Amino acid sequence: MSDPAPSNLRTRSEALAAPLPDLQARAERLARTLLLGGHGRRQAGTGDEFWQYRPAQVGDSAASIDWRRSGQSDAQFVREKEWQAAQSVHLWIDGSAAMQFASTTDLKPKADRAGVLAMALSILLMKGGERVALAALGTPPRIGALQLSRIADGLIAGDDADYGAPDATGFLPHSAAVFMSDFLGPLAPVEAAIAISVDLGIKGVLFQILDPAEEVFPYQGRTIFTSMGGAVSHETLRAGDLRDRYRDRLNERKHHLSDLAKHAGWQFETHHTDASAQSALLWLYAALEGRR
Q1: What percent of the chain has pLDDT over 70?
Q2: What is the CATH number assigned to the segment(s) 19-43+87-289?
Q3: Where in the chain is the domain with CATH 3.40.50?
Q4: What is the pTM of this model?
Q5: How far apart (Å, rounded) are the C-alpha atoms in residues 84 and 45?
């Protein structure tokens, strides 16, 4: 098969990269509001004591590899210290089709709010000396401008699945985690990822992002409900009759998520896309600060 025409490749590449500057710029402005408010801090690590070796991963620098330990086997190993785990935060940001929903043209999709919050939170954490990783990339937590660019790339990549499923594979023990999603899909994967995290001594946050229409269910009369991925569709002639049942189910789900977080020693919060992004960022930052 021949290579794509250079003009087509350039057009597709530019379209893919277009959201990056906007996402980063909005995230930096959002983070700056908290930094100017005195919420930023730089905190020293808990110590330089050797903690463990871990297998080297894609993206690890040559300087981070312990060549003496690696020479004892066919694999390469990174020597991690205690503070590197204690000051590491893993972000799982739901990039599924469901997160592309926006009920009106005046609101941005849930994925947009999640992306801006994730980037702004990463900026704040890194300015405080913490390392951050995006779970979708499968790389260890790092700090710096290059890592922020990697996170931005990962956030705009998206996913074809109808609903997202968190993956705690590769999380560092005794680190922290943020799961950001609408949590409207199956909850079994969420429960499994939290169970893995708890076994690793990880404290974290479940942050639910909903469009306001998903909260109030304003629909009346004949309505066709179709999942963003197109896999599920339901037509009703009396949408208003479903409102109470829908709200009850949503409240049951919220209570389940809240109980799940409580039993794990995590925190849970619901945020709506018509609410202030600044207040959401402040809550997230404070929740992670409170884990110490």
Answers
A1: 67
A2: 3.40.50
A3: 19-43+87-289
A4: 0.76
A5: 8
